[in-house]
Design brief:
Elements lengths: L1 E12 L2 E13 L4 E5 L6 H8 L7 E6 L2 E2 L5 H10 L1 E5 L10 H11 L6 H10 L15 H13 L5 E5 L7 H16 L3 E6 L2 H4 L4 E6 L2 E7 L1
Parallel strand pairs: 3-8, 3-9, 6-7, 7-8
Antiparallel strand pairs: 1-2, 1-4, 4-5, 9-10
Helix pairs in contact: 3-4, 3-5, 4-5, 5-6
């Protein structure tokens, strides 16, 4: 599903250059659940942003489902982000003044879809939150916030879910519940990539990629 070949990403600040990714190559197969782990500054988030079409590599090739993403226009990248990729973030990124239902509905609105309500309710049902659809984020727990975020990632039926530190703000028990939801989604055929710094979270995945200084230093399969 994903093939990265000799990916280099350089950020420039004035005259200073920072090489966040340094000739990284890897593959992720359709239906895998993979974790990416490494210390701060290892390139984890940069890699996630490139895979999610939120950023472009400075050089190298990124093939997603047979498409050379490196060659696509911004509007084409936006379409991929909306249709093929679901994002789950550490800080949930929910709009505070609208309900869980309205938060989950946002990707469908951006995509111009009509008859959205049932798809939204189905997504909330898949994470066990249909009964909280009309609650505001302030009325939900941290774990429920992340469930809403996962439902929002699911609502466009993506092929790929990218989760950046999805349990970073959650207690141990809630983290387990979120990881079990992600495993269940993976069992339905969705490819899932998780960025984490926690070995116990990485242990939920089938394969862990270890990064350091913008390069893969080892991989562990389970």
């Amino acid at each position: 599903m994903i093939r990265l070949e000799n990916i280099i990403k350089v950020y420039k600040t004035g005259t200073v250059e920072v090489r966040a990714l340094n000739g990284l190559s890897c593959r992720v197969e359709q239906g895998e659940m993979v974790s990416i782990i490494g210390p701060s500054g290892s390139g984890k988030s940069t890699l996630m942003h490139i895979i999610g079409c939120l950023d472009r590599p400075t050089s190298g090739k990124y093939i997603l489902e047979g498409m050379d993403v490196s060659l696509l226009r911004e509007d084409q990248l936006a379409k991929i982000r909306n249709k093929k990729v679901g994002f789950v973030f550490q800080f949930f990124n929910l709009l505070p003044r609208v309900t869980a239902l309205a938060n989950v509905e946002l990707p469908l609105i951006y995509g111009g879809l009509r008859n959205r309500r049932q798809r939204v309710l189905d997504a909330l049902e898949s994470v066990g939150l249909s009964h909280r659809a009309h609650h505001l984020p302030s009325q939900l727990s941290g774990g429920e916030h992340q469930r809403v975020a996962i439902a929002r990632a699911l609502v466009n039926n993506p092929d790929l879910i990218l989760a950046d530190e999805p349990t970073g703000n959650l207690d141990t028990q809630t983290s387990k519940e979120i990881m079990l939801i992600l495993q269940q989604l993976n069992q339905k055929g969705i490819t899932i990539i998780i960025v984490t710094h926690e070995a116990d979270i990485a242990a939920y995945t089938q394969r862990t990629i270890y990064l350091r200084d913008g390069q893969i230093v080892k991989e562990v399969r389970r």
